[in-house]
# Entry
Amino acid sequence: MATRSKHSSKHSGSYLQQRLKSGYTPSCGIPKFKELSPATSKSPNYSERKPLKGVHSLLSPANCIRFYHSYEPYYEFTNFFLQPVKIDGVIWPTTEHYFQAQKFIGTPYCEVIRKLPTPREAFQYSRMPEVSRWQRRDWASVKEDVMFKALANKFMQNERLKIKLLETKDCKLIEHTYRDSYWGDGGDGSGLNRLGELLMELRSILQYKEEAESRRRLPSSSRLRRSSSFSGNIDRLHLSRDTSATNRLSCTDDMHLQSSRLPFHSQPTPAVQIMDLSSPDKKETASRIVHVMETVGFLCLDNVPGYNIEAEEELMEANKWFFSLPLEKKLSVARYLHNNKNRNFYRGYFGLDKDYSSYKEGYEFGQDSSTCPGYERESDEGFPLTENNVWPQPDPNENEDERKFYTKFKETVGKHYMRMMSASVEFLQLLAIGLGLPETYFHHLFVPDTLSTLRLQHYPPREFAPPDKAIEDGQVVVCETHVDSGFVTLLITFGFTGLQVLLQNNSWLDVKPRPGSLVVNLGKTLSESTGGRIKATKHRVIDPGGE
# Structure
């Protein structure tokens, strides 16, 4: 499901045509933490530990250090060890808190995780179904970089931990647990042991830095005598994944770490900017909005009055109810193109067309024509796109409880329409300020009457091969590349991915879902009215799969 508020001037005679991928919202705003499994009070039984098998068992005890349990000597190496760490100016209770929160960066869940009492709660909270569905799309490709950054900060901010890691010298470090075959060894040595590998990688870098510092303190003759053994250490470092592990870390006085393995620090990538609609500094916000709309053309709008995760959930339920109606019920409110018995040509329901590149169904409504000053139903002259709304009606045989859903649907989407109208007017006020115009410059186009409409949208999965026209750059699209035609579009993604924006370098930028936030872009009518200064950006929706 998706909703898109389309705001068109009553003088423009044009509307927005495409919509975003649909989906579900969490069952509540920010889920409260629930223990997923009861804590055990059982005393540790050392005999229960499974022996290592495979390659790790070839190492003698002197060359192998295993860690996992709190009763073991090297428990500090785990992310559950209670050691606060400061990263990017924010203090985290443990590295586990930081690591789990980075899955949801840019959402409210990030801060919720930071405030959880224990690392286990942070771990379990991130796996709750209503939370995990908001996990960032690129997590698989960046999670090791995030982990390395967390470990580096942890060990370089605590001298005792740093010394303990260096004292392991060349020992193999193994997170020994049957619970995890990625970060751990799987209990039998068959796992990847990525946590242990990253710790050894960090240790090599710290050893190099310690060695380099020692060399700087030695007399020149001593440096020459030690050069051969030191070069061997450099060669070992250069065999790591990066071509230059010596540049892996640089540490400032406040211990803020930079890592060449973290592209989001060393090679910043563009992202859709976030604007706070509640910011008291209107001029600053207005200036930022204009800058974004002159360049990227898309932004996210936070703190929209009356709109939050709960409102998003309520609207999603209304979407699901409508699109689950029988086809004949939806066709009863369909446009003339889909049902020639109806008089409505623009508003109402439109169905699926398997031969078209955009595979979607939708329902659209707006301000009722009876409230438009000067409009008379007997004559459409002067109001070519103004018509009455058509609402689904209960059948005579439906009981009272079933009839309530029809009333609830109309109330819910009507309430959301008014929220979006208010938000769009407020946004256009900021845009006017940023353009150096009077704050109410755009009001006469939308107040008191407007052609603005709200569209509910559903992209069901295709049950057949997509047509050739639905393939762009090897991607299956459910909404082809296009530019919106109206003034301003306010979009709700309901947590689903797929929306992409075409940047000036002809690359596609993914618009990441943001709970309780609106995606805003501007249309061709507004762009042309500013002489092209404001961008009407090309965008599309690729098919991420699923319902």
